[in-house]
Amino acid sequence: MVVDLDKYLKQDKDYYIAIGLEGSANKLGVGIIKHSKGLLSNVNKAKVLSNVRDTYITPPGEGFLPRDTARHHRNWVVRIIKKAIKDANINKFDIDVICFTQGPGMGAPLQSVVIAARTISQIWQIPLVGVNHCIGHIEMGREITGALNPVVLYVSGGNTQVIAYSKNRYRIFGETLDIAIGNCLDRFARTLKISNDPAPGYNIEQLAKKGKHLVNLPYTVKGMDMSMSGILAYIDQLAKDMFGIQKKQLKDEESGEFITKEDLCFSLQEILFSMLVEITERALAHVNSNQVLIVGGVGSNERLQEMMKLMIQDRKNGQIFATDERFCIDNGIMIAHAGLLQYRTGGIIKDLKDTVCTQRFRTDEVYIAWRDD
Amino acid sequence: MTESLISTLEDKIPNIKLNCISQGAEALVFESDTHPYYNDSKNCIIKYRPSKPYRHPKIDLQITKQRTIGEVKFMYKLCKLGIPCPNIITTDFPNGIIWMEFIGYKLENNEISSFKNWLWYLEKNGNDHDPLKKEVEFVCIKVGELIGKLHLNDMIHGDLTSSNMILVQDDVPHLIDFGLSSFSGLPEDKAVDLYVLERAIMSTHSVYAESYNRWLLKGYQQGYTNKSKYKEVIKRLEDVRLRGRKRSMLG
Amino acid sequence: MRLVPTAEYNAPDIESHKFEPSDGPHTTYGKTTQISDIVIKAGGEDRDKPTDHNDTPLGNLRAELTTLQDQINIFLTDRMNLEKDNKNQEADIERRLLDEGVDEDESE
C-alpha cells in the first residue's frame, strides 16, 4: 500500500506551498517550501523557496531568558515573514498551509510565534498545522540528504535523542537522562565567559580545535542512554579552580604543560561526542541498521561529524548523512516541510483551541501518516 | 568495513577459524570450532573489542580495558552465584578478547535465539505464534526473575535490552554483554537499569510492550526476594520514569 | 475605521476589571515590554526594538494594543505583589509561632 499524498490537492493546482514559523528557542525562522504533487523522491524533491532566520544573541556569560527571547520573536516576526515571502517571490494567497512549531521548546517564545501564525491564518484565511519541532528536523534531514530509513541522532540545545522509525512513529531508543548536549556546552561556555555570537557551541568548537591535552573526565553511558550533568559539574569545577580567584593551575601528566581553556573545550567535546557516537552505534546494532542521520544544531559540529564518519566506516555498508547549518540549526523551512507532509495527509487544525503550544512534546507522540514502511 | 576489523583479530589469534556472527556496538562476536586448549569440544564464542578510531586514543584504551576486565569480573561473580550466563574460557585483556562458551540455538528463521529475535519472530509470524501466548508470558517472567536475582546481589547490568538475553533450549534465558556492568546497592542504579530495559522494550517491541513490561516486572518481584529493598527500587523507578517524562526540553 | 481593543479581568475576590486604551496618543513602545535589565547590565544592547506603527487601522490597533498590554501587565503585577505580601505575612506568623514560640493570640 502506498500513502495517497494528493487527497487534499486544490483544484487546478499541481503543487503545494507551505510557510513554516519556528521559534521554540532563541532562533526565529520563517521558511517557504514547495512540493510538486505525487510522492517525494529523488526526482521529485521538495523545493526551498526561502529560508530566513534571525537569532536572539545575549552578552557573554548570559543565557537567553524566555521573556527577552519572546520579545525578540514578537518584534521581528512580521519583518521576517515579509522577507520570506519576498525572497520566495510568491503571492501569499498561493500558500496552502501555515505551519508553526507546537513544541517542544520554551513556553514564551513558542507562544509569541503561534500568535503570529494564528493572526496571518485568520487574515489570509489559510489553515494551520501544528508541527513537532523534532519531527521537523528529522523530515527535513531525510529530504535534504535522501537518507531513507536512518537511525537519527538529534542533538540540539534542548534535545539529545537517538531515534529510529518503526510502525508510523519515530521512536526514541536512547536519550539523555538529564541535560541536553547543547545545554551542557552552552553552560560551559557561560562558565568560561565565551561569546554567544554566533553561538556558544560554535565558539567552543573553534577553541577545541586548538586543544591538545586530554583532561580525564567521567564517561557515563547507560545502555542507549547517557548522562551529562555529572561531567558538566566536574569540568565546571575544574574551570572555576583554574580561572577563579585561586588560579590553581593544572598540568598535563605526560608533557608537563599547563592545561588551557582550549584543552578543556577539547576534552569536553571528545568525551561527550564519544558518548554520543557510542549510543548511536548501540542503536544501529540494536535495530540492524547501517545509516545514520545527524540533525539539530550540535549536528553541524565538524568534530562530531568526523567521529560519526569514523564509526560508520567500520560498519558493514555504513552510510552517514548530515546537513549544513542552514538546516541543522533551527529554521522555519523544516517546520514548513514537515507541516506540509502533515497537511497532505489531512493533519490540519480545525479549531483555534487546538493551536495551544506545549513545552513538552515527545517525538514518539506524533503519528507519521505519510510513511507506510 | 568489517573485514579490516576481522583481520586485526586474525593477526592477534592466528590459525583460529573465525566466523563473525554479529557486530555489536562495541564488540565483534565470532563463533569458532577451535577451543584454545581442548581438542574435542563444542563451539566457542570469541568476543573482541576492537579499538575505536573515533575515540581519542587515551579514552579508547581506558574504555576497552575497563570494559573487558569489568565484563569478565561480572561473569565470574554470576557464575559463582549460579545466575545463568555463558562460562568464561580464557581472556586476553590488553587485546580486548574474551573466549566463552557458546550458548543459544538457531530459530526457525535462522537467527540466533536472543530474546529480541525470538519475540520478533513470534510478532512477525502472526496467528499460530501468538505473541501474547502463555509461553511468552512464561519467558518474560523468567527474564524478570533473572534481573531480580541480579539486583538482589547488588549487580547492575547497565545495558538491559532484549538483545542481551539469549534463550537456550527449554526457554531458559541467559544474560550476556556486561561491558557496562557495575556493582552497586543504590536503588537509583537498579531503577535506572530497569528503566533502560523498559524503554528498550517499548521502542523495540512497541505493539506488545505493555504486556511484556508487566510480565517482566512480575518476574522481577519474584526474583528480588528481599521485599523491602525491592519496594525501594520500584518506588525509585517511578521517580526515574517521571523524570524521563518531565525532563525539561529547554535550551 | 478605528479598531479598539478591550480586555476584562475576572476573579472571585474582586469586581470585574475592564481595560480600555485611552484616547492616546499610542505607540508601539510599551513601558512593560522593554528588554530585561540583566541584559543591559551585562553589556548587551537592545537590537530588538519594535518598529513604529503605520497610520492604518491595523497599525493603530497595534499601538493601542501596546497601551492595553501595559495596563494589563501593571494590573497583574500589582496583584501578584499583593498576593506575595499576604503570603509573606502568613509565613512570618508561622515562622514566629514555630521559631520564637510566640503564641498565636499574642501575634494578633
UniProtKB/TrEMBL annotation, chain A:
Cofactor: a divalent metal cation
Hydrolase listed as a keyword: no
EC number: 2.3.1.234
Sequence ranges assigned to domain Gcp-like in this UniProt record: 48-336
Binding of substrate, residues: Y154, V155, S156, G157, G158, D186, G201, E205, N301
Name the UniProt record assigns to this protein: N(6)-L-threonylcarbamoyladenine synthase
Annotated HAMAP family: Kae1
Alphabetical keyword list: Acyltransferase, Cytoplasm, Metal-binding, Nucleus, Transferase, tRNA processing
InterPro entries attached to this UniProt entry: ATPase_NBD, Gcp-like_dom, KAE1/TsaD, Kae1_archaea_euk, Peptidase_M22_CS
Entry note: cofactor: Binds 1 divalent metal cation per subunit.
Organism from which the protein derives: Candida verbasci
Reactions it catalyzes: L-threonylcarbamoyladenylate + adenosine(37) in tRNA = N(6)-L-threonylcarbamoyladenosine(37) in tRNA + AMP + H(+)
CDD domains: ASKHA_NBD_OSGEP_like_euk
Domain of life of the source: Eukaryota
Gene3D superfamilies referenced in this protein's UniProt entry, alphabetically: 3.30.420.40
One Gene Ontology CC term in the entry: cytoplasm
Sequence similarity: Belongs to the KAE1 / TsaD family.
Single annotated GO MF: metal ion binding
Main subcellular location of this protein, as a coarse class: cytoplasm
UniProtKB/TrEMBL annotation, chain B:
GO CC terms: chromosome, telomeric region; cytosol; EKC/KEOPS complex; nucleus
PROSITE patterns named among the record's database cross-references: PROTEIN_KINASE_DOM, PROTEIN_KINASE_TYR
UniProt domain Protein kinase: residue ranges: 15-251
Domain of life: Eukaryota
Gene3D superfamilies registered for this protein in UniProt: Phosphorylase Kinase, domain 1 (3.30.200.20), Transferase(Phosphotransferase) domain 1 (1.10.510.10)
Keyword Hydrolase applies: yes
GO molecular-function terms, A-Z: ATP binding; hydrolase activity; protein serine/threonine kinase activity
Record-stated family: Belongs to the protein kinase superfamily. BUD32 family.
InterPro entries associated with the record: Bud32, Kinase-like_dom_sf, Prot_kinase_dom, RIO_dom, Tyr_kinase_AS
Entry protein name: EKC/KEOPS complex subunit BUD32
Self-association state and partner proteins as the record states: Component of the EKC/KEOPS complex composed of at least BUD32, CGI121, GON7, KAE1 and PCC1; the whole complex dimerizes.
EC top class named in words: transferase
Function: Component of the EKC/KEOPS complex that is required for the formation of a threonylcarbamoyl group on adenosine at position 37 (t(6)A37) in tRNAs that read codons beginning with adenine. The complex is probably involved in the transfer of the threonylcarbamoyl moiety of threonylcarbamoyl-AMP (TC-AMP) to the N6 group of A37. BUD32 has ATPase activity in the context of the EKC/KEOPS complex and likely plays a supporting role to the catalytic subunit KAE1. The EKC/KEOPS complex also promotes both telomere uncapping and telomere elongation.
Entry EC number(s): 2.7.11.1
From TrEMBL, chain C:
Primary localisation category: nucleus
Keywords assigned by UniProt, alphabetized: Activator, Chromosome, Nucleus, Telomere, Transcription, Transcription regulation, tRNA processing
Record InterPro entries: EKC/KEOPS_Gon7 (IPR014849)
GO-annotated cellular components: chromosome, telomeric region; nucleus
One biological process term in Gene Ontology: tRNA processing
Protein family according to the UniProt entry: Belongs to the GON7 family.
Subunit structure of this chain's protein: Component of the EKC/KEOPS complex composed of at least BUD32, CGI121, GON7, KAE1 and PCC1; the whole complex dimerizes.
Name of the protein in its database record: EKC/KEOPS complex subunit GON7
Organism encoding this protein: Candida verbasci
